[in-house]
Amino acid sequence: MKSITQIQLPRASFACLLTLTIFLRLLLSTTTSLNRLIFHLVSLNGVILLTCACCLALSLFLYLSRRRRPVLLVDYACFKPDFDRKCSYEVCEYLVRRSRRFTTVSEEFMRRIYLKSGLGDEAYAPPFIFQTDYEAKLKSAVQEAQEGMFSAVDSLLQTTMIDPSQIDIVITTCGMFSPTPSLSSMIVNRYHLKPNVQTFNLSGMGCSSGVMSIDMAAKLLSRDRRIRYALVVVTESISLNWYFGENRSMLVTNCIFRVGTAAALVTNDPTRRSTAKMELLTSLRSHHGADDASYKAAFQEEDADGNMGISLTKDLIRVATEGLRVHIHSLAPRVLPLTQLFSCAYSILSSKLSRGETKEKVPDFTTAFDHMCIHTGGKAVIEQVGKVMRLGGEVTEPARMTLHRFGNTSSSLVFYELAYFEAKGRVKKGDKMWMLAFGTGFKVCSLVWKALRDSRREAENPWNDCIHRYPLKAW
C-alpha cells in the first residue's frame, strides 16, 4: 500500500485540495454565522487572502486547460464512381466467363452467392474489371485508390471551405493495400500540406478501420490543443485482391466487396459547432483476437495452388455474434437510460439465481439511439445483428439498402449509410446516432454521435440520383 507521500495527485486536484483545506480551516476557526464568517475573512491577513485567491485561480485555470474539448464532425464526403463503373450481375457473369480462370463448379457457386447476397445491379467495381486484361497490376490498385481518395477529399474541401494548410493530421486507412510511398503521403503530395502535418497510415484492420480511424483522430485532437483539424480518408482496394482460385471460402469476397471511399473532417475547435454536423459523444473498441476462432474468421492466405485471397470461414457469423454480445455489454452502461439498465440488471440477476433457466434480457438500444448505422458486411451479417439485438426492419433498413446500392465497401460503409439517413432527411438536431462496424482480427467498434443540426439534401450526396427508389419493398 502506498503512503500518502507516494501518491501523485494531478495538479488540478492538488490545487483544489489545498483551497478546500484552507476554507475548512477558516470554518473551524470561526462561528457558523455567515456575517461573522464574512467579517472574519475580511479581517484576515492579506497573505492568506492572496493564497486563497491564487489557489482558486490556479484551480480554475487547470480545470479549463484540461477540460475535454468537443470532437466535431465538420462534414464528410463519399466517392461515387462514374456510371460506367457499375457492376451488375450481367457484368460479373461476363467477367467470370471471359477470364476463363474459373471452373464451371466455381462459376455456379459464385452465381448462387451473388444472387442471395443482397447486392443490386448498381454497386461499383474497380477499373481493371472493364479492361481486356483481367490480371490487375499495381497501376490498377493505385488508380483505384487515387480516384476514390482524391474525389472524396476534393468534395470535402469544397464543401467545408477549409484551406489544406489548416489540416494538422491526416489519417488514411486501407485494409488490403499498403503501397510505398503510403496513401497518406499521396494526400500530402496532392494537396501540398504543411511540412509539420502528422500522418498515419492504417492497414490490415478490415471493415472496422473507418470507425477506428475516427476514434484515433478524436484521441489525437483531445491531447494537443495546438491541433485543430484532422482529415480522415477511408478506402479499400479490390484490384489486387480479386480472387481467381477455386477455394469457396475465398470466392465469397468476389461477390460482396465493391468500390467505395469516404473522407471526413474532424475538429476540436468549439467555434465550428455552428457549422459542424455532429459531435462525438463516445467511442468503444473491443478486440477478440486472443481467441483463435475469432482471429482466423477472416484471414488472408494462399490457397493450395498459391492464389492469394481472403478466406471468410463459416465461423464468421458466430464469431461476430459473440463479439457483438461482449461489445454491447461494455457499451450499454455508457449509453442506455437508467430504466433500461435497471431492467437488464434485474434480468441478469434472475438468470444467475435460476442457474440459466431464465435468459438474460437483451438491452433495447432503440431507447438510446434515434438512428443506427449497422455494419453492412453482408445480408447474413445484417440479419444476425438484427436478430441478436432484436431490431425491427425499419432499424436495419439503411444497412440493407446501402448493401443493395453500394455493396460492401469495407471501411467506408458507415459513411454511405449516414448519407442514406441524410438523403432521407431523417436526422434532426439533437438525435443520437450509433455507428457499429466489425473488422478482421476480430474487432467490434462503435461511435456515438449527436446531431448538431437537421439533415438536408446536399448536392454531393451519393444517393441523390436514386433515393426516391428506396427503401425497396423486397430485399
Please tell me about this protein's structure.
This protein is an alpha/beta fold. About 45% of the residues lie in helices and about 15% in strands. The protein contains 15 helices and eleven strands. The chain has helices at about 10-30, 35-40, 45-65, 90-100, 105-115, 140-160, 185-190, 210-225, 250-255, 290-295, 315-335, 340-355, 380-390, 395-405, 415-425; strands spanning about 70-80, 165-175, 200, 230-235, 260-265, 280-285, 300, 310, 370-375, 430-440, 445-450. Strands 3-2-4-5-1-6-11-10-9 form a nine-stranded mixed sheet, sandwiched between helices. Strands 7-8 form a two-stranded antiparallel ribbon. Helix 7 links the parallel strand 2 (about 165-175) and strand 3 (about 200). Helix 1 (about 10-30) runs antiparallel to helix 3 (about 45-65) and helix 14 packs across helix 15. It is globular, with a radius of gyration of 27 Å. It starts with 10 loop residues before the first helix and ends in a 24-residue tail after the last strand. About 40% of the residues are buried.
The largest β sheet comes out as: 9 strands, mixed
Radius of gyration: 27 Å
Average pLDDT number: 86
Note the quaternary state here: single chain
Count of alpha/pi helices: 15
The rounded distance between the terminal residues' Cα atoms is 62 Å
Low-confidence stretches: 1-13
Order of helices and strands: HHHEHHHEHEHEHEEHEEHHEHHHEE
Q: Biggest sheet, strands in spatial order?
A: 3-2-4-5-1-6-11-10-9
Helix fraction bin:
40-55%
Number of strands: 11
Shape assignment:
globular
Structural class: alpha/beta
β-sheet strand percentage: 15-25%
